[in-house]
Write a structure and sequence with these properties.
With about 325 residues, the protein is of the alpha/beta class. It has 15 helices and 8 strands. The chain folds into 2 domains: about 180 residues, Rossmann fold (3-Layer(aba) Sandwich), CATH 3.40.50.720; about 140 residues, N-(1-d-carboxylethyl)-l-norvaline Dehydrogenase, domain 2. Helix 8 runs parallel beside helix 11.
Length: about 325
């Protein structure tokens, strides 16, 4: 009988913890690294993560630690579930501890500020590994629903299809259905840009602009994402799948979405600092909207919704003024 797959999950926030549950339910031996020792102690002693997923019972095969070396030891898969903008420094610190042939798995949906790199590119740059050692898990994956074992699907993306299939098997459960894809660029961009569009839809909802506005923003947001993806060599069909449309719809329609909730608070008139103060967890789109726009400008891609979000979130523009400016743009054919 073969030994169980060993997985290390770095990051004991809501999504890291939820994915640890998935891996354990799929039969893996999981070690969850928590930055704070008290979180690790709570997981081990109460079988819950009260700070991030209160009330959710964790499997016995999930063990937590605040010791990065202990977490990383002999892991077949090293899952990274930390804020995108901290990943470079954290991974550089953990690198000497990682198992030699471990597959590095990104759960993060962001673009790095300054470099405009996708998370898989940052991992390859820091770890000095090839694309066949880096995988991405993305899709409509709201952490609390998955931790409650409600049905969900996801995409496991890797340039090496055999690696993607290995990870697929390691996280396939009766309630979590992963599909494979080799279009890492498209899958990552779908996950990163949907956070920005989620902010835009949240702002519109907070302003009470109605469902027509929401439907329009989701659709035109998907068009922006596809344009950027094609400029970077992604397969446009990826954006009609789980990593694109699926994730976008979940983020833009659920009260569990951090980005939607953040945007809704801005739309209701809260300042950026007030909204940050009431948001306990990272809303990736708040920082990534700037790096996504930077990436688009580097490739000459027009992304007016993303520009509007940046103007509201980081330049202090009134949401009402920004919406009027967005709506008064020159008319054009839909498919352009």
């Amino acid at each position: 009988m073969s030994a169980p797959v060993k997985a290390a999950v770095f990051g004991a926030g809501s999504w890291g913890t939820a994915f640890a549950v998935v891996l354990a339910d799929a039969g893996c031996d999981v070690t969850l690294w928590a930055r704070r020792a008290e979180v690790a102690e709570a997981v081990n002693s109460t079988r819950t993560n009260p700070d991030y997923l209160p009330g959710v019972e964790l499997p016995r095969t999930v063990r937590a630690t605040a010791d990065a070396a202990e977490a990383a030891r002999d892991a077949d898969f090293t899952v990274l579930a930390i804020p995108s903008q901290t990943m470079r420094d954290n991974l550089a610190e953990w690198l000497p501890l990682l198992a030699p042939d471990t597959v590095l798995v990104s759960l993060m949906k962001g673009v790095e500020l300054g470099s405009a790199m996708r998370m898989s590119e940052v991992i390859e740059d820091v770890a000095k590994v090839g694309a066949d050692r880096v995988a991405v898990v993305t899709g409509p994956n709201l952490a609390r629903e998955i931790a409650a074992r409600m049905p969900a699907a996801a995409v496991v993306a890797c340039a090496d299809e055999a690696v993607a299939r290995r990870l697929q098997a390691a996280c396939h459960t009766p309630y979590f259905r992963p599909y494979t894809n080799t279009d890492v660029v498209g899958c990552e961009l779908g996950g990163a840009v949907k956070n920005v569009i989620g902010l835009a839809v949240g702002i519109a909802d907070g302003m009470g602009l109605g469902d027509n506005a929401k439907g329009s923003l989701i659709t035109r947001g998907l068009a922006e994402t596809t344009r950027l993806g094609m400029a970077l060599g992604a397969d446009p069909l990826t954006f009609s799948g789980l990593a694109g449309l699926g994730d976008l719809v979940a983020t833009c329609s659920s009260p569990l979405s951090r980005n939607h909730t953040f945007g809704a608070n801005l739309g209701r008139g809260m300042t950026l600092q007030e909204t940050i103060a009431v948001t306990r967890q990272t809303a990736e789109g708040v920082k990534s909207c700037e790096s996504v726009l930077d990436l688009a400008r580097r490739h000459g891609v027009d992304m007016p919704i993303t520009e509007t979000v940046v103007a509201i979130v980081h330049e202090g523009k009134s949401p009402m003024v920004a919406v009027k400016e967005l709506m008064s743009r020159s008319a054009k054919p839909e498919r352009r």
